[in-house]
Amino acid sequence: MKVEELTPALFVGCPRYLTQDRFAELAGLQNQKDLLARWIDEGALPTRSFGRHRLIDMQALLQHLHQARGTQG
Q1: CB of 57 within 8 A of CB of 16?
Q2: CA distance 2 to 66
Q3: Can you list the alpha helix ranges (DSSP code H) found in the chain?
Q4: Cβ–Cβ < 8 Å for 16, 50
Q5: Which among 21, 35, 39, 46 is least surrounded, fewest beta carbons within 10 Å?
Q6: Do residues 8 and 65 lie in contact, with contact meaning Cβ atoms separated by under 8 Å?
Q7: Which residues does residue 30 pair with via DSSP β-bridges, in sequence order?
Q8: What is the DSSP string of 54-68?
């Protein structure tokens, strides 16, 4: 399996919260839903719960990506 790096450029202009399906679409992971679910369960992707819905917190993810690269954003 070829693994591609997630970059902030993939998510420019996206809303603050994304469903797992929309995130998979934007990141090109439509066929990797088990992997995406594991990342969520392990905390690799920050999420917020709204009632029964668990959404990916894009602001927290982008902040984490910027910190990992040593940049501000």
Answers
A1: yes
A2: 23
A3: 20-27, 33-42, 58-69
A4: no
A5: 21
A6: yes
A7: none
A8: EEEEHHHHHHHHHHH
CA R_g for the chain: 12
Tens-place pLDDT, residues 12-70 = 667 889 999 999 998 889 999 999 999 999 998 999 999 999 999 998 988 888 788 77
| pTM confidence score | 0.70
Task: Give dist(CA 54, CA 9) in Å, integer.
Answer: 23
| DSSP β-ladder status, 47-50 and 17-18 | unpaired
Q: How many Å separate Cα 38 from the centre of its chain? A: 12
